[in-house]
UniProtKB/TrEMBL annotation:
Nucleoside triphosphate pyrophosphatase that hydrolyzes dTTP and UTP. May have a dual role in cell division arrest and in preventing the incorporation of modified nucleotides into cellular nucleic acids. The record marks R22, T79, Q161 as: Important for substrate specificity. GO terms for biological process: nucleotide metabolic process. The active site is at D78. Its cofactor is a divalent metal cation. It comes from Radiobacillus deserti. It is found in: Cytoplasm. Keywords: Cytoplasm, Hydrolase, Nucleotide metabolism. One of its GO terms (molecular function) is dTTP diphosphatase activity. This is dTTP/UTP pyrophosphatase. It catalyses: dTTP + H2O = dTMP + diphosphate + H(+); UTP + H2O = UMP + diphosphate + H(+). HAMAP family: Maf.
Amino acid sequence: MLKKKNGGTILNHLILASSSPRRKELLEQAGFVFQIRTSNVDEEAIQLLNPRKLVESLAVWKGEAVPIQSDEVIVSADTVVSLGNRILTKPKNKAHAMQMLSSLNGRKHDVYTGVMIRSKNIRTVFSVATSVTFWNHSKEDLLRYVESGEPMDKAGGYGIQGMGAFLVKEIVGDYYNVVGLPISSLSRKLKEFDIYPSRFTTINS
Ligand SMILES: Cc1cn([C@H]2C[C@H](O)[C@@H](COP(=O)(O)OP(=O)(O)OP(=O)(O)O)O2)c(=O)[nH]c1=O
């Protein structure tokens, strides 16, 4: 977090441009100190792109929609589920959630999260994919899960970090990416912006 320049010390402030409680938790858990600044972006406005392009475009859109000061670094993200040639975002209602979960049942899908890191002068965009396989569940079990309400604000209609864990047989890749923020890749890229977890001390070389 501390940047040395011409012998002086400059603080880079990290901003998370997201209203997702999961992204906030993951960034806190990884030790970063940050503020939240959100905007209203119509995520339905971008369509018909492949999942990687879609999540990267939405991350850029979300990150560009918030104002930035010269000493700030903004992180924004978007997550979707990709099943064959279909892209699943957040369900509109319980019936839609049931439809999504039925289509994922007993099958493998990919979860894509796109991230943008932006300072006044630099912009980095990347995305990470994680493969997730569901067990085969009865309709009753899926209905019980939908009735819990957990699927409603989550891409693909499930939360692997919550009760939705019962759905998942196997994952290949970054677990945190499924939850909404690929924290391992993000931490590495934040170093390029002189952003480190707050308890990492400054090493004088
Ligand atoms: C697949 C999956 C998704 N999700 C969540 C992560 C994201 O919050 C959400 C996908 O919606 P997004 O549109 O990516 O994010 P958001 O609307 O929640 O927040 P913001 O746009 O303000 O950043 O789905 C889980 O929490 N667990 C899961 O297992």
